[in-house]
Amino acid sequence: MKLTNEIIKFKEKLQLEDELEEKEENNQDNLPEIRVDEINDDDLEQHSETSETYTELLANIDNTKNLEINTGDIDMDEKPSTSGITYHDKATQTETEEEDTIEKILKAITTLCTKVDSMDNEIQKLKTNEDNRSLKLVKDMTIKMRATPIGRRKNPS
Questions:
Q1: Closest Cα to residue 14, out of 113, 149, 6?
Q2: What is the pLDDT of residues 105-153, one digit of tens each?
Q3: Are 106 and 13 in contact (CB under 8 A)?
Q4: Terminal alpha carbon distance of the chain
Q5: DSSP-derived secondary structure letter, 71
Q6: SS3 assignment for 101-140
Q7: Confidence check: pLDDT of 41 > 70
Q8: Which of 91, 36, 47 lies closest to 69, judged by CA?
């Protein structure tokens, strides 16, 4: 029972942590994502001549207009990374897999604890039944011995 209660408390703690992480993710999801791979070579060549800041370059990209970005000046001879990897997506996927694994483990432990508790109850019932049978045998023997006094026993002659 104690183990089951500890597991339940642990599950509740994990659920609270999951809710906090979900709130953080929702806050991050509401922020617009800026991807460097959306800047093409034409943009770099066009803006390198005028020596515009990286902030101004990003403001010209359709999906990032009206965003206030403070990145400072950059060297326009360097090409930005065009890998297009969004680490947020990969992190979320890993967290989901870990949560699923933890949830499966907790379910297995809970099931095991329930079975152990059930087996313990059955063992207690069997012990009680065995003790009752032993007591009944002792009572029966005592009653038989008291019913037949020693001096009045029949002689088999």
A1: 6
A2: 888 888 898 898 889 999 999 999 998 998 888 888 888 877 776 655 5
A3: no
A4: 65
A5: -
A6: HHHHHHHHHHHHHHHHHHHHHHHHHHHHHHHHHHHHHHHH
A7: no
A8: 36
